[in-house]
Amino acid sequence: MAHGGLVAMGFEFSGEIWEWRGPAPFYFVTVPEVESRAIKSAERLLTYGWGMIPAKVRIGRTVWKTALWPKEGRYVLPLKDAVRRAEGLEVGQVVQVWLEVGLGPADKQ
Asked: One Pfam match, by short name (predicted)?
């Protein structure tokens, strides 16, 4: 986290779970355009490199730390297998996401 974690933003949105099939499948929810633009505007204060943005996330009752990935002008939220299992999530399902970026030094992974 750059600049001592002085920037913090919170968002709540819904999005559909989708799968990227590569050598190992990954599951994501795309951050909506408006929220992606807000994050992008503070990216240089938030990123730890390569456009990756550290984040704290909640879906249902599950809370975890991860990093948003830049993709096609927006950000995508990777869903860990443990999160998908705990919440019973599947591809195509629309989920409500609580997202916080700009974690302070004590919140780093």
From this structure: DUF1905
